[in-house]
Amino acid sequence: MNAAALGLHRIGYEVRSYFRAPDAVFFTFLFPVIMLALFSVAFSGSPDIQAGPGVSVDYATYYLPGLVATALLLSGTQSLGVDIAGERSDGTLKRLGGTPLPVLSYFVGKIGMVLVTVTAQVVLLLLIAALVFGVDLPTDGGAWARFAGIVLLGVATSCVLGIAISALPREGRRATATIVPIVLVLQFISGVYLPFTQLPDWLQTVAGVFPLRWMASGMRSVFLPEGFASAEPGGAWHLGLGTLVLAAWLVLGVVACLLTFRWNRRDA
């Protein structure tokens, strides 16, 4: 079998392994859905969020974009980072390194798994938002094209960062404690749970360096009325700048992967 065929075979294996791990399913696949339900129910009796005269949305609609962006980061950076660190620590990578499996096929399997799970996760999130909480999804083809572009670039960036960050934990048992807090902090400073412009200016600047801030604002440009652009820094979505930041992280992530990934542990 060539590298591509082996990679496709690995996708099926990785997807099955993913859904057999209850912690991965709960903390990555179902987490955005649970948070959407939590915020929607908790604030169901609160007034709609205003972005100006005559421009308002309910809480389910407001939180949906950030949680879609979070799904990309959880499935890519967090899931891959923890998973690969564990495989390195328990000797799985070392054993794979002794087989004819190419590194490319291994990564095709991992990234393919993320694409499959992200697709299922986002579809489930949108269906629940629309059918259970009455969120009005976009009807404009241009908005959905922008959505697809953000998803693809966001998944690619999240995956390479997940592979790169997997090199941080010295032991697999420390992977969750090392990687999850980083992802959690990014969620709170990137406009997922709190209105971004309510954060201190210095914290907005820090968040603006990282991908999640731009994935979240990009998703807001898809799911929120245009009037909500006034609530963004500078009063605009800044989609071009966001694309550049994500592309820069994608390149940096690829370089980091090439420099740090090994079949064996660094201290082996």
UniProtKB/TrEMBL annotation:
Subcellular location: Cell membrane; Membrane
Keyword Transmembrane: yes
Ranges where the ABC transmembrane type-2 domain occurs: 23-264
InterPro entries: ABC2_TM (IPR013525), ABC2_TM_bact-type (IPR047817), ABC_2_transport (IPR000412), Nod_factor_ABC_transporter (IPR051784)
Membrane topology designation: Multi-pass membrane protein
Pfam family for this entry, one: ABC2_membrane
UniProtKB keywords: Antibiotic resistance, Cell membrane, Membrane, Transmembrane, Transmembrane helix, Transport
Membrane-traversing stretches: 24-43, 63-86, 107-135, 147-168, 175-196, 236-261
Main location: membrane
This protein's record includes keyword Transport: yes
Membership in a protein family: Belongs to the ABC-2 integral membrane protein family.
Protein name (record): Transport permease protein
Lineage, broadest ranks: Bacteria, Bacillati, Actinomycetota, Actinomycetes, Micrococcales
